[in-house]
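[job 0417] fold request received: D-glycero-beta-D-manno-heptose-7-phosphate kinase
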Amino acid sequence: MNPTRWPNSASTITRSDVPVSNSPLKPMHAPESNVSLVPEAGVVPRARLAAARVLVVGDVMLDRYWFGDVNRISPEAPVPVVHVQKQEDRLGGAANVARNAAALGAQAGLLCVVGHDEPGERIVELLKDSGVVPHLERDPELLTTIKLRVLSRQQQLLRVDFENTPAHEALLAGLARFDEQLSKHDVILLSDYAKGGLTHVTTMIAKARAAGKPVLVDPKGDDWERYRGATLITPNRAELREVVGQWKSEDDLRARVTALRTSLGIEALLLTRSEEGMTLFTADGGERHASAVAREVYDVSGAGDTVIATLAVMLGAGLPLVEAVSLANRAAGIVVGKLGTATVDYDELFP
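[job 0417] inference complete; emitting structure tokens
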């Protein structure tokens, strides 16, 4: 996906279709006037969130940032020369999702596969300080995924990815560990970045639903048959188009989403729509819209992680889905004001 420049932003946006507004003046309105609006949620006590137990399963990665100044063009090629002055590592992918859940005060577990390499060890170190309980499988042949971003004056100049796929044995061991952890958690969150960590996602969903656990999925790719039976799926517009094609109207979108949900046995679909906010489609035919939060956009990297993590925590705390969506929308509006993959804590969500 091509980066998009937003007005009044000092940063290049690297992901789209999260619920934010590009106008600092007022929030966007619902796509159609006959669509119900998501009601504003009230304050949820800390103790209620602390009781929520969320297990995040999926692809983890290390988000590595190099910050520096650009003062000249290389004599070797017409490219800027960055004098790197600061480096920073953050948890990415499913690890960032789990970190977001922990930041809200929930009990967050993370099941994933990492390599026996420097970035894998760095992920282990960062998890120790995150409040996340790690359930890690180590694959000696795996190159832990790294997303290296080079920035100058808060402008992203380049991203370099390093990755490969976990071994079959490590994935089977992870599936066995999933069986062990299932009864210890209230909500299962599957964070798919198409790196191979969710090879057994269909089996995981079936086991979780059989155990009466809600399953939330952040999807990737055009094969959603693998997510059959999930409770809630949270695509952005580009991800949904890959599966249902381009819709011509809101009525057309509604029909395509209904057909998709029905065919896959998915109870609800939350579509994040960038400056148009987010729309929740449910099995009873209901449709509710959350308007985008009026906020200057800084960077939307990882905002989808914040959305699904907030949903999982709120559902784990016993909130109705529509209230969870309202709070996830609010959290997204906060996190886009931060650089890179970031979190929203309790005091920010409930000031």
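[job 0417] notes: The chain has one domain: 4-61+92-144+164-349. The first strand starts at residue 4 and ends at 5.
[job 0417] exit 0
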